[in-house]
Specification:
With 201 residues, the chain is of the alpha+beta class. The protein contains one helix and ten strands, in the order αββββββββββ. The radius of gyration is 35 Å and the shape is globular.
């Protein structure tokens, strides 16, 4: 009778397969790790949200405000002058123009002054101050963007409002009304003071 060699019996369940108890413990560890990472990310997001964007925007404002409106006195015979102010809008908007009564000036326009070089020198203009730079170029703009909560300053050497065709000289201590028109906000009337320098505060 032939002799048949014994066939080794192969275990159907590999030893490397973890037991159910061990698997449950592993999943519990994974879930705990995911929760911890989620909490860490949420904390980081909260810090970023509180930190803002490097302080570029100012504090929250509930209404559009215009402050520090002023214009320099002009000598007799001057036909133009300049108006400066600061605008802060609670939401994105655009300043479309500034108007004054006919008894102050015939028309107005928005301008931006920039330094260009020795070949672009401007002539002297009564009531106009371009800052420390002696060589400037003045360009008319059709509108001035107003980013939410970011002050936009009209000042010597930068943005300004030109008054054309003065009806009479602007005298220190006097003043006049100016109406600002916006793309989204309703028109706003402000009082402009005539002084040698910007009002303090």
């Amino acid at each position: 009778m032939p002799v048949i060699d014994a066939v080794p019996v192969i275990d159907a369940v590999p030893a490397a397969v973890p037991s159910p108890v061990r698997s449950r413990r592993g999943w519990r560890r994974v879930r705990a790790g995911v929760v911890a990472v989620g909490a860490l990310l949420a904390g980081v997001a909260g810090v970023v949200a509180c930190g803002g964007d490097d302080g570029a925007a100012g504090p929250a404002v509930s209404a559009l405000t215009v402050t520090g409106a002023w214009s320099r006195p002009t000598p007799p015979g001057a036909t133009s002058a300049v108006l400066y102010l600061e605008v802060v809008s609670p939401a994105d908007d655009e300043l479309l123009g500034v108007s004054v009564p006919a008894e102050v000036a015939a028309s107005t326009s928005l301008h931006r002054t920039t330094a260009e070089g020795a070949t672009a020198e401007m002539g002297a203009m009564p009531g106009m101050d371009h800052g420390d730079a002696a060589v400037m170029t003045m360009t008319e703009v059709t509108a001035v963007p107003l980013a939410a909560r970011r002050p936009v300053v009209f000042e010597p050497g930068g943005l300004h409002v030109m008054l054309h065709g003065l009806a009479a000289p602007l005298v220190a201590g006097g003043g006049f009304d100016a109406t600002l028109r916006f793309a989204r906000h309703e028109p706003l009337v402000v009082r402009v003071v005539v002084a040698d320098r910007a009002p303090s505060g």
